[in-house]
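U., I forgot to send this yesterday:
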Amino acid sequence: MATRSKKKKTVQRKRTSRYTRWLHKPGCLLAVILALAAYAYVCWVLFVAPYNVRWKARYGNVDLPKGYSIHGIDISHHQGVIDWEDLSNASLGGGPVAFIMMKATEGQTLLDDCFNDNFYQAGQWRYIRGVYHFFTPEAGTGKKQAQYYLRQVHLEDGDLPPILDIEQLGKLTRKQIRQEAKAWLDECEKAYGRTPIIYTYYKFKEQYLDGEEFDKYPYWIAHYYVKELGYKGEWKFWQHTDCGKLPGIKGDVDLDVYNGSMYDLRKQCLNNDEETDD
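Result:
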């Protein structure tokens, strides 16, 4: 019995090696792995990606959030030179672009290359303008960064109040980032007499900007490739994708919606004596 069993195992081993021997040839196993990877990628592209929210955006097919009628964009030097006449004919959700957010400053020394032209052109084409400062934790105190913003940016009636873009902790502690953010906000509120707006992504808001001292500010929350904003607190603007496509702009552009009516949006602007409390 032992001899017969041994012979049977030997035959099975020979048969197995006959079918798998080619796998041991140089490059064969790698070729199999690459072929399987290519097959998986093709299946993803053809059958999964076109129906996935994130990948639909990458393919240029952005689903606008439902229930919002006021749409806007966020621009900086990344969009390059904009054809404003073409942009004026663009449509989002069946209506025109209503507001344009734009980057102005960063830290204490950086002025966006396209800011001055963007600010002027957006005013000429009668868009509601929002102008933000990108807060850099390593670039000095919040007060000094606010002072730099105020030297470079001169908002006018009809513009939105100053906007603080804060989304990096850097080497600061939770307590320090809160102190510096508040210092920036206080400095700009003192200059314009209006409550500034805070831009951040919703997890940063929940982790670092919670508490009563930050409750009064209107929020512009970034949360991409989702059907509903994950942040459950009060907010005014939602940046829902960074893959928007519009006439007059080469490449991608961030898209936003306003949470309210056009009347409410205009009440947010600097030409009003009273702030909206809705």
